[in-house]
Amino acid sequence: MAFYFGKGTTGKAESKSVSPEEKVFFLKMKGDYCRYLAELGCAESCKSATDTAMMAYRIASDIASAELPACHPVRLGLALNFSVFYYEILGLHVQATSLAKRAFDDAIVLLDNYAEADFGPGGALCDSTLIMQLLRDGLSFWPAQPPEEQEENS
Hints:
two-stranded antiparallel sheet
């Protein structure tokens, strides 16, 4: 996969091959940007931004699942932001909590393979553990069902 990164030293448009981490990060940022537009937009622009965000998040998730370990901070950040998109923008509370829980559970399994020093400041998993805390916070704050469905099931 090649991404356009602007004009190179020759003055011509250039593409360069990028790592899976860079692809996921770029697509996550595209999804985030479109999610913000959807939050601010009105009818038609909101629909377009929502569709674009969904596409970017899905492609990034496919690449991340195939190429990055479950405890990688970019993969975890993607899961966090994609779950917020499901919850806040689409109102799909079950999908949001399911995605966040799966990302947290998949990452926690891999953490046993790392030394304690990896979790502290400057450690390889410092960012990952912070993002996992945010995933856990989201899971504790978000009801699995929207309030209307909770009332119907009571």
